[in-house]
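[step 3/7] fold_predict: job queued, chain A
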Amino acid sequence: MKKILIAPSILSADFSDLQKDISMIENAGADWLHIDVMDGHFVPNITIGPLVIKNIRKHSKLFFDVHLMITNPEKYWENFQDAGADAIVFHQEVLCNKQKLITDIKSAGLKAGISIKPNTPVETILPLLPFIDIVLIMTVEPGFGGQSFMDEVLPKITTLRKIMDNDKYNFLIEVDGGINLDTAKKCFSAGADVLVSGNYIFLSDNPVKVLQELKSIN
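[step 4/7] structure written:
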């Protein structure tokens, strides 16, 4: 039976004590750590850069899933590699040579992923699917945590799963945005492999219990 991977997003963690929150979710069984990097240009928010990742890398053995919501990922991804990223995920909507960027990221020994916003069709990434390790489906508009899940995006997950199964591709389907126990079950049923959850975990009264409930869905 397929097991879901849970990637808590530090966007919702306590930035005054990141080490504590990361240790908590790591000990509770988190599979990945999702790290949102925003530049205030591609999305209307600014978060963190490589220095923060480099410092938290010292305190965690989790898989660092770095989501670059930035306009020029080809210029900056190596800074995040040096800081300790395990995966670099960038957006289909940016203007760059995506095939070259994927090749460069994978040649450096990292996992490479492509993300699409809610209104971006799956068809736009079809040429990249044979080469990538992760497809990140956004179920909210990227930029801020705490938004409501967009049910209309669910068919994209189903479509991607069918394409992957039919063409024998080998990428993981990751979903980010408004993930709670109810929406997590919907995503899992649609074919998701990895679920990103921020507010639902870190702002709950019992983050450890919530994380373990998410891990137990089937």
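[step 5/7] annotate
Strands lie at 5-8, 32-38, 63-69, 87-91, 111-116, 134-138, 172-176, 194-197.
The chain is about 35% helix and 20% strand.
exit 0
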